[in-house]
Design a protein that fits this description.
Helix content: 10-25%
CATH superfamily of the largest domain: Transferase(Phosphotransferase) domain 1
Strand order of the largest sheet: 1-2-3-4-6-5
Number of strands: 22
Number of helices: 13
Distance between the termini: 63 Å
Number of domains: 3
Mean pLDDT: 78
Shape: globular
Oligomer: single chain
CATH topology of the largest domain: Transferase(Phosphotransferase), domain 1
Low-confidence stretches: 162-173, 285-411
CATH architecture of the largest domain: Orthogonal Bundle
Amino acid sequence: MSETETLISVLLDNQYQITELLGKGGMASVYKAVQKSINRVVAVKVLPRSFMHDETFMQRFRQEAELIARLEHFHILPIYDYGEFEGMPYIVMRYLEGGTVQRRIEQGPLPWEDILRITSHIAGALDYAHARAIIHRDIKPSNILLDAEGNAYLADFGIAKMSESTAHLTGSGIVGTPAYMAPEQSRPGPPAPSVDIYALGVTVFEMITGHQPYRADTPIAQIMMHLQSPVPSVRDYNPDIPVEVDEVIAKALAKQPEDRFQSATEFARALETAVRQGGSWEVDRTLVAPERMVSTPPSPYAPTYEAPGRPATTTAPRESAAAVPRAASKGGRTLLWVGGGALGLVVVGGLLIALLLGGRGAGGGPASTPPGEIAMAGTEEGAAALAAQEATATPSPTSEPPTPTATPEPTEAPTPTPLAERITLRGVPMLLVPAGTFIMGSDEGYPRERPAHEVYLDDYYMDETEVTNIYYMACVDAGACAPPEFVDSPYQVAYYGYETFHNYPVIYINWEEAQTYCRWRSGHLPTEAQWEKAARWNPETGEAYMFPWGGVSLDPYYLNYGSNFGHTTEVTTYPDGRSPYGLYDMAGNLIEWVYDWYQDNYYEVSPHDNPTGPATGQFRVLRGGSYESHGSGLTTTFRDYIDPLTKKATIGFRCAFTPSGDPTAGLP
């Protein structure tokens, strides 16, 4: 796109300073830029001026940009802004440095742990979009981006839809990348979620084997293979791959939509179950390297436009991978068939349409809306009052034994005094988390978050907010706590000690210092189980939330994350982001120390009642994510860990108090 070659150093609309070219394709160029107003690094996709002369396209462009901007899911690459600059439409997106899945595949098959994680992330994004009647149509490895932590994000939502909308308005058209097109995508008619699931199946096949399932000399031949050729077996590339995994892939790539999985998440879960039941496998790159067509790895933002498909069960006989033609791959080339050629791409005309039959697809199910949070109210009381409550809960012995009778009358047990919903310890507000069971962990997250399991906890209280500078200062002034290692934060001078930041969370505190502070308040650092229940469990509905406020996607309205501010905020900034028990910042702002030592498989052996973590270890657990975190690192089940001596500007803490007795007392 010659007209965008001179954009380096240009300031778009007095807002986006272009710094470098990230990638270039037939329809757009993508640049790295800095958003001047908040000093945020972004990616800017710039389309050619020729689109400005197509009023229909521009109308669709604006509609789609606004639509996709409303897709608030933490595994969908967010669109921040869109506009026009000197006749060139542009879209502003989040910038990621981790590259694409395509780039990973260029190095050979992926480890199974990465495959499961990426599939789960993208499946969740697809089901979220499908529930809102949005079909991606362009699922492929080059449209899946990774962050530095390995979280996967689906990109280019809406671009394929925009192209296809224009095609339909200018004549009979089909959008898609032949390597990932579902059979029904080549037929007339609107696409269904099934095309996305099929394309996800192709992508998983490629992650497992390092190859696309169908490769041919021409795009038409490749499309016909999707229509007619049996599904190859992944075991032909690596015989160590379990049969159960092969069967799941075959179902995802079934020719008929009704034979596939009916949701992307169903596919992801079936794949994980197959791996767990059949056993994992070692990546053997020697089986595929001789046939691997290595090309220059594409930029994470190199624009490509293809067509996606949705998982399915195969009814055709299986065919050995060796029998599938292995002609030189045409790569990820995207084809857009347009009668009239309005977009000036590949024009095939009506020949292909005449070869293909009509088809049908499956729809996606609606997503449930989590209930609102529970309002917490009550009178402030001190620890002494709680102790008194416990004392009144136990009846006092009488001085004389009761006179025995032949038939003793049953006596009614005394009713314990209810615990207050709110107390203070040394002036710090704490909220009650009533005793009971909840579901801890997740079967859909990282391996260290598994398995989901039931846990029982006694009544306890948690600080309503992260411990602030002013509250920590009281412990320092009392001579019980050491001051933070640094007075300044990375972004604010005199962060600790200056009145402006009194209500900001204290930073540069290691684990031992945090525990010392909590002990000074007659409390303790929360156990990992106490922290997670307070963050995610809705006792009214019995639901375990992905995010504390009950949503399924990240939104800067609810939390401080992803470098929105680039530093901490006051602890009561996000009232709508509180957990079901009324606690602030259980996601974002600062990642928090908890009591437990870290053990990656601890959930497999943890006790049912009041778990306190492994007996010893090298690292302590951190929970909740910080203002620098992204994606799954902010979910209520994500477990991080670090050396307990660490002091960072992104780490904070809050305290707990357990009326029945400190569960961490006497433990190392």
